Amino acid sequence: MAKTDTIHMRVSPEVKSEADSILSLLGITTADAINIFLNQVILRGGLPFEVRLPTARAETLARIERIENGTAEMVGPFKTFEDYKAWVTSDEEDEI
Question: Is the pLDDT of residue 51 over 90?
Answer without folding.
Answer: no
